[in-house]
Amino acid sequence: MMVAKSKWVKALVWLWAGTLAAWSQTVEVSELIFQPGELSSRDSVLKVDVGESAPDFSLPNLTGELVSLSSFRGKKNVVLSFVPAAWTPVCSAQWPGYEVAEDYFKDTDTIILGITVDNVPTLHAWTTAMGGIGFPVLSDFHPHGEVAETYGVLRSNGVAERALFVIDKKGIIRYIDVHDITERPPLEDLVKTLRSL
Amino acid sequence: MHIAKSILSIALAFGGVSLTGTLSAEVDCLTVPGCVVPVSSSPNKSSFSDTFSTALAVPYDSEHRTYLGIDDGRETFKMSDIRADILVVLVFDMYCHVCGQSADNMSRLEEKLNGKTDDCRVRIIGLGRGDTQFEVETFARKFKLDFPVFSDRKHGLSDGLGVTRTPSGFAFICDANGGFELVDSFSGYLSKLKLEAFTNRVGALCSKE
């Protein structure tokens, strides 16, 4: 009887220790975010302009399939949302916010394509930690930042600017906002543009 | 064997880890009814005063103006002008995914207070930390938050409350002279359990009023 009791006590201790260990490993996304310190608000020169045709590209999404900008021509308006990098402040909030605002995009027949220069596994981990992102997230990793460079939003340290490009169904750039990298672009500015298309 | 399973379930529940092995986002105070999460920094009466005396634009919705007791034609108001025995302030951010995950329970706050706070006048407002008014209203419309919501674009209002993470919630006892006292708070993901515990505590405050 004593032996049985002792086994139960041991089992309980192990369970509790395991539980505490698991508890201590539980983290929120905010605790994983890297703090990059002071950044210059902008560090690139645009290579495209409003009224021009948007340069086409094909980039892998989170399942590795290639997504081309031209595949939306005649079908959807497109918002290209470049953000600097996974696991950084501001970026880790901007896209979940667009999920909340999804009705504006649906109402204006618009799709968002989120782009960073991170590789697919990193983007997979980051977006999963954020609870998933409902629009295509594309990796501009290899060749590194090629699309960001084509649009003129690749910073000298290899990450992208926080930039928005609105491209209409004809493939014409209708709006550009290369925003201060430390701030979120106000949603209403983007919505106003989309409603004007 | 059944006993062992029960013990395992209880242990895992308190550890914040589900039986399927997925890590829970709830790390603090969520499985313990009655637990109060202190705000991260140390706001003082003075910083609260700054928040309560900041001018805000009156809501354009007349029902919201009536709800707050500020339907006398003024263009701006202060939080200290709100006619309430207890003022609940929810701080969130349209761009915070934990706020989105908590929003269903935020929208149930008023419903959960019904029946617990019949003896006093409780009013709820939302502050969008870092949000423009357009963004905070987008969040409120998306998640059917019926209470008035206000932009806190530069964080001034929520910094005064000591907020460093969203969502956060605060309960203040107010008096007729515009005085207020912080009596309860929570921060982080608002689970059903946390909502229940918070509304129970606010209800208990009402019965003491």
The CATH architecture designation of the largest domain in chain B is 3-Layer(aba) Sandwich
The major beta sheet of chain A can be summarized as: 5 strands, mixed
CATH superfamily (homologous) name of the largest domain in chain A: Glutaredoxin
Assign the CATH architecture of the largest domain in chain A: 3-Layer(aba) Sandwich
Q: What's the arrangement of strands in the largest beta sheet of chain B?
A: 5-4-3-6-7
Largest interface: A-B, 31 and 31 residues
Oligomer: heterodimer
Q: Give the overall average pLDDT of chain A.
A: 88
Q: Provide the spatial order of strands within the biggest beta sheet of chain A.
A: 5-4-3-6-7
Overall 3D shape of chain A: elongated
Could you name the CATH topology of the largest domain in chain B? Glutaredoxin
Tell me the structural class of chain B: alpha/beta
User: Fraction of residues of chain A in helices?
Assistant: 25-40%
Per DSSP, the total helix count of chain B is 8
Written as H for each helix and E for each strand, in order along the chain, the element string of chain A is HHEEEHHEHEHEEH
Number of strands of chain A: 7
The CATH first-level class of the largest domain in chain A comes to Alpha Beta
Report the total helices of chain A: 7
Number of domains of chain B: 2
Gyration radius of chain B (Cα, Å) is 18 Å
How much of the sequence of chain B is in beta strands?
A: 15-25%
